[in-house]
Design a protein that fits this description.
mainly beta; 1 helix; five-stranded mixed β-barrel
Amino acid sequence: MSIHTQESVSGFVATDPKLTTSANGNQRLYFRFGQEHFRREEDGSFTQLETSFHRLVMFGRSAELANERFTKGDNFIAEGYQQPVSFERDGQPVEGEEFVAKRIGHDVVRTRYDVDRSPRKVAGQEAPAREQSRAFESPAQRTVFSSPALGL
């Protein structure tokens, strides 16, 4: 079976995320994000170019969770797709594009954080107990067995 891939985007949250509810009760998260750009010079150094700014939206439960966890300035990586958008601003038509994120997470290269691996509670239910055999082991804790090398 082939690997399922999606478009991705990375950047930083440039505006305060805004969570709204549509007429049918669906949650929508919107924020503008920035992407820094660099040019590699012949001497191996980098020159920072102008930062570009774009639109990101999310929908449903993912939008609610992202709204709880992201704030202006956070670095992120998101998976989803681009789509064209058109709307009016100050009576003028605006054409552009936005990134529709299906999943989003903090960029581990630029963000320090702790991971909570306890199971999530399902609405109206208590979280199931985690099996001890499936508990996380860091690479330093794992025991690796290998056969001794044989020389000729």
